[in-house]
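Hi R.,

Here's the chain you asked about this morning:
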Amino acid sequence: MSASPAERSALQRLRALLLDEGGPMASLVKPAEECRRVGNPGWAGLPSNESPAQLAASGPRAEGHREDYELLIEAIYEGYLLHYGTPRVVCTAEADLALLAGDRLYALGLARLVALGDTEAVAELADTITLSALAQGAGEPELADAVWAAGARAVGWGSSQGHRRAKDLALAGAAEAIEAMRTSAASLSVSP
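And the predicted structure, written out as tokens:
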């Protein structure tokens, strides 16, 4: 699956940010074709294959900071891919190093979100990271994808009662969690 032009742009900005920071993370920045690990090939959460970053950044809550949201969510999603999939920017053959690099990218993205003052989105992405990790641990990568899609939608549009219910179902390991997450991801209207 090739990245869309908008996704490439955000990934290019992430790549440049990590290279500019230098240090150990910069040494792990590679072209996408060098990042070949076994696992989930990447985003499959929406029929349009819009990335979580693009989805969140296109919502009204990101208005005025779309590029910031896209970059920080790409960083967080890249961290997730280092843990469970095929990363696109930061690559390592060592599993332990991939976990550490993934955690660093989680922290980088969340810190940038805190700097924007969006504590609601920080909480939403913390839930997304937790619930997707639980889904992966349970051997349910499709649920993990649905969690990312619903979480990105909630960052961009705000949470809803249906989304909160979907998170409760996922946390409980309920069979209907995946459909509830997919419904939440597809719903662009917000109900308090």
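Residues 5-186 form one domain.

Let me know if you need anything else.
M.
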